[in-house]
Amino acid sequence: MSKTQESELAAAIHNATGVNVAECYQCGKCTAGCPMAKFMDIVPNQIMRLVQIGDKPSEDKLLRSVAIWRCAGCLTCMQRCPNELDPAAVIDALREMSHGQGKVVKAAKKILAFHRAFLKTVEKTGRMSEFALTRRYKLATGDLFSDVGLAPAMLFKGKLSLKSHKIPGRGEIKRIFATCRDASRTEHGRGARGGNR
Amino acid sequence: MKSIGYYPGCSLRGGGIELDMSVRAVAQVAGVELRQIEDWNCCGATAAHNLSHELAVALPYRVLALAEAQGLTEVLTPCAACFSRLKGTNVRLARSKELTARMQEIVEKPYNGTVKILNINEFLNRLLADGLAEKLTTPLKGLKVAPYYGCLLSRGDGIVEGDDHEAPTSMDAAIKAAGAEIVPWNYATECCGGGFSMSMTDAVVDLSNAILADAKAAGADAIVTGCPMCHSNLDMRQRKINAAGYGPYEMPVLYLSELLGLAAGLEPKAVGLNRHFTDAMGVVKRSA
Amino acid sequence: MARIGVFICHCGENIGRTVDCAAVTAAAAKMPGVVHSVDYKYMCSDPGQQMIKKAIVEKKLSGVVVAACSPRMHERTFRNAAAEAGLNPYLLEMANLREHCSWVHSDKAAATQKAIDLIRLMVEKVRRNKALYPIRVPVEPTALVIGGGIAGIQAALDIADGGKKVILVEKSPSIGGHMARLSETFPTLDCSQCILTPRMVEAASHPNITLMTYSEVEAVEGFVGNFEVTIRKKARYVDPAKCTGCGDCWNKCPQKKIPNEFDANLGFRTAIYTPFPQAVPNKPVIDAEHCTMLTKGKCGLCAKVCPRGAVNFKDQDELVKVKVGAIILATGFELWNHSAYGEYGAGKLTDVIDGFAFERLASASGPTGGEIRRPSDKTEPKTVVFIQCCGSRDDKAGKQYCSKICCMYTAKHAMLYRHKVHDGRAVVFYMDIRAAGKGYDEFVRRAIEADGAEYIRGRVSRIYRRQDGKLIVRGADTLAGQPVTVEADMVVLADAIVPRSGSEKLAQMLGVAYDTDGFYSEAHPKLRPVETAAAGVFLAGACQAPKDIPDSVAQASASAAKALGLFAKPELEREPIVAHVNPNTCVHCRACISACPYGAIQDFEIKDRAGKVLRVVAEVNEGLCQGCGTCVAVCRSNSIDLDGFTDEEIFSEILTLE
Question: Is B164 at the interface with chain C, CB within 8 A?
């Protein structure tokens, strides 16, 4: 007899994160302490529950939720879980699946755009450039005007450099990104363009 | 300690420049050389672990491999997020030979797990123990401080060690050594909203307001923090928080290293105090 | 000349389906020494046993092998049958064809051959078995009950009413235990003191009960039926023979601010004190740590005002030795310390209290006269949050188990609060509701439906005191799928139930096993709930596992029945499977003495007629020996043998297998 009857989704999460969701008894302490729960469509204990159920409709609900994108990674849930589980790690894995399968919900567009813009600047130069990040983010989201007043102040205070910081080893960084992207595609089967479906 | 490896991280060259300036200044007062890792790359911060678990380990792995190759056994990383990623990667690699092998395959560099990562609090506490305490000749007497750890300097699986996760005290020694008074308050480890500054500004306003509100109600003159993201959310966004109808607040937000720098008699400009969005120069007047 | 009968059981299908019993019977008939070999469907049944008895008599059998199930099942059954037929029971052995053969193999041919081999082994052994006779040990028909809570009191009363003497030892100044601290009990909401105090008085005045309060067990020696227990009677500094309990002393005592443990430190007591007004015995003791006279040599007011001159500052502890035949452990429980939960304030938030503190607030004889008041400012709380499972079901920071009684007493607390504060809000955060007893689920529903307690399913993540003084409780409603924040005036934590501190030391004194959580281990979790692995030592109440009052009382009566059963015979019969040392070959290396897990082997001096010691050898105490055989294995000079399992008998089994 197998040890636990894990759904495919639960098994994938278990492999990726080491978290065995069968150990979650739905006490809700994670939801109780989550600072972003009030902004979520599915709260953390429900996310754990849906992974436990793990059927296709549940998986779809999870990967197309905005909740998984609004987790701040504050680790309060992990810190206080009486069964030493890590909902934040589970959510990270769900994010990767959601992005990889092109199921990111529209409401999370800005958040995803921010992460992608961040990583793009790193891929190109080896370091994150706040200026380049902001430019990419605003173009991607069409949100051209918010925080515009901050830019001059940042420049004046020397907190915003217009130059990019190219590191000598940026070729290695490009290669690392490419390797990880390929591996992710193989795992999650994204389309050629990697866009949302 | 004569010298220590140094990983500034991307934000310390931009929005978190005061942290970089004040850490360097305090290290100089203490006579400790900061040896920056050559060719260091971004650790990936939040974006990498949100989108790719392999990338999220590969980027810090490269940093650790470089440090090891450059003979650095200890590395200070003042940014709380970089600390969480670098030390977290150390922890994960130590637990899994497969992961280490995979990372070596991706990054094409060896790493034997010999680099120890220190966060800002651990570093400053060590400086204090090594004699920095005697050099704090202009204490900020009477300054009431609310120590704010945020998430990544108080929690994490095997990452933050030797401090109570619910009621941390690792900033206490430095604050007291600087002559300031610690105010008991309730939001020392509550999340400020983290990386949602641009993509979910409302959430940051909501969460950071709660922190400012409690600090104010507790009678704090200033909040002291160790994380550039938290600093940005509490300092840079304070005007927006006030504009949303909260407060209104005039709460200076200092890095612990700025506080120590001031207590050591350094000029406010030298530690970057003049670059804050929320005026912090009033803190200086206390030490006169 | 051996005349052995072999009786092969099919055990229905259990053996018969895998082992060819007919073939085995035929093979057994040919074994050396076997004069009778038969098989039957159910050997343990009445006709089966009759078969054996008849054969013993008719065939004049000198030994019997019953090839059937495990001896742990039916050895007693078959040995009794043999004894009834006039054959010494120790001349009957069982060959295990079930647990050791048919139940673990599927290859019929191999299993049948193995069955034949197993019988052959046992036939060889039985040929060498010697008749053995039970060892008789006298029984002291007095019981010792350790712990004077409701379980201890019940056990003592049952034994005393059964006509036997009881010594009831209690370490605090009064009996009554935790039940005396409760306000009302579920599910009837009876006043706890009202139903308890009559029992307390009865226990104190029963002619068969000797009450020793403010006393502790210091050492235990001996064995079942013959324990010798040393009890330390702590110095009371008040002569109970002279004291009338008038109270003049404690009214005058100037040390009035000692935190009162009985009241969960919510109120104060004096240095000379009785723990509560209904204490039994109602005679005060002096707390030597806080008494000015005993610490500094000044004051002595109580002695001055006492009309009977009962105060004696020169009092000393007294050690008393008693002989008892049975011991009942009823040491009870205490609450886990929630300072381990930093997220709930690490025990430093006043107004975040545990269940006993709430009981004392609700109790008419408590520090607030039965009014619910915040410990911090004595105001009436308008919103009280009750949190279940605090420290229970928590693998990480607390205890893994469920503490069983908290769902019920939390519902009770919510009801008591709502009864006393009509405009108050009672919010209960729970994970599950465990209300399995008689009338229990109805009780919880009443709390919700009739008394307006608000039940929210979800654990609480954090409690802190906001700057304006309100306690902020961050919880969750997992059923609605949202976080819930409550602004409370007081929080009551249902802390986990743990055994009393010091219980492990007591267990070690008695040779009683305890589990990783410190609860005493029963002999068998299903079928022997009040016995322990130590013969003559029984368990009653929460010291064995978290339980409520009805179960504690039931268990107490059960252990009393066991004790009375022990006392029913003037002598105890013990199985004669004991070891013997051959004093002629023993070299006194003492390896057996160290190896014996029961401390059953001692030095024995061989003296000449003048009393001069010639040699010292080892000797086994038949009363303590459990027949485990460890000493036989370690003896270097081969001087020890075990009756019933002698070297010759065991080796004959082994050598039979080629």
Answer: yes
Whether B39 has its CB under 8 Å from any CB of chain C: the answer is: no
Q: How far is B131 from chain A (nearest CA, A)?
A: 32
Cα–Cα dist C180/C196, whole Å: 7
Q: Which residues of A touch B108 (CB under 8 A)?
A: 172, 175
**Closest approach of chain C CAs to the CA of B156, in angstroms?**
15
- Contact present, C501 and C333 (Cβ < 8 Å): no
Phi, psi of C319 (to 5 degrees): -100, 130
**Residue B44 near chain A (CB below 8 Å):** yes
pLDDT (mean) for B79-98: 96
**CB burial string C30-65: b at 16+ within 10 A, e below:** ebeebbbbebbeebbeeebbebbbebbeeeebbbbb
Name chain A contacts of B203, Cβ cutoff 8 Å.
36, 39, 70, 72
Tell me if B271 sits within 8 A of B258, measured CB to CB: yes
Whether C116 and C30 have beta carbons less than 8 Å apart is answered as no
Which one-letter amino acid corresponds to residue B7? Y
**d(Cα C267, Cα C367) in Å, to the nearest integer?**
5
Phi, psi of C494 (to 5 degrees): -85, 85
For residue C426, list its beta bridge partners. Answer: C384
H or E segment at C136?
A: strand C135-138
* Distance (Å, whole) CA A188 – CA A182: 10
Span C68-102, pLDDT tens digits? 999 988 999 999 999 999 999 999 999 999 999 99
Please report, rounded to a whole number, the percentage of residues in chain C having pLDDT higher than 70.
100
Say if residues C25 and C8 touch (Cβ distance below 8 Å).
Answer: yes
* CA A145/CA A148 separation, integer angstroms: 5
Identify the band that residue A195 occupies on the pLDDT scale cut at 50, 70 and 90: very low
Q: Respond yes or no on whether ipTM tops 0.90.
A: yes
Report the distance separating Cα C635 and Cα C587, nearest Å.
9
In chain A, the percentage of residues whose pLDDT exceeds 70 is 93
CA distance B144 to chain C (A): 16
Over residues C9-63, the pLDDT tens digits come to 999 999 999 999 999 999 999 999 999 999 999 999 999 999 999 999 999 999 9
- The CA-based angle C385-C481-A65, given to 5 degrees, is 150
Assess contact for C485 and C380: CB atoms under 8 A. Answer: no
Q: Is B235 exposed, middle or buried (0-12, 13-18, 19+ CB in 10 A)?
A: buried
Q: Does B50 reach chain C within 8 Å, measured CB to CB?
A: no
Can you tell me the distance from the alpha carbon of A133 to that of A118, in angstroms, rounded to the nearest whole number? 5
In the predicted structure, residue C3 carries a pLDDT above the cut 80: yes
Q: What is the pLDDT of residue C74?
A: 92
Q: H/E element holding C54?
A: helix C46-58
Query: CA distances (Å), B277 to each of A157, B182, B228, B231, B249, in order?
Result: 9, 23, 13, 10, 12
Closest CA to C620 of C577, C580, C573: C580
**What stretches of B49-143 adopt beta strand conformation (E)?**
74-76, 116-118
Q: Which residues in chain A touch residue C480, judged by CB atoms under 8 angstroms apart?
A: none
Cα dihedral sign, C63-C69-C74-C78: negative
Q: Does A70 touch chain B (CB under 8 A)?
A: yes
Look at residue A194 in the predicted model and tell me its pLDDT: 40
- The residue with tokens 């074994």 is C31
Q: Which of A70, A114, A167 minimises the CB distance to B39?
A: A167
Mutate to test the interface with A, among C394, C462, C473, C478 (most CBs of A within 10 A): C478
Tell me if C343 and B217 make a contact (CB, 8 A cut-off): no
**Phi, psi of C68, rounded to the nearest 5 degrees:** -155, -125
Quote the minimal CA–CA distance from C474 to chain A in Å. Answer: 6
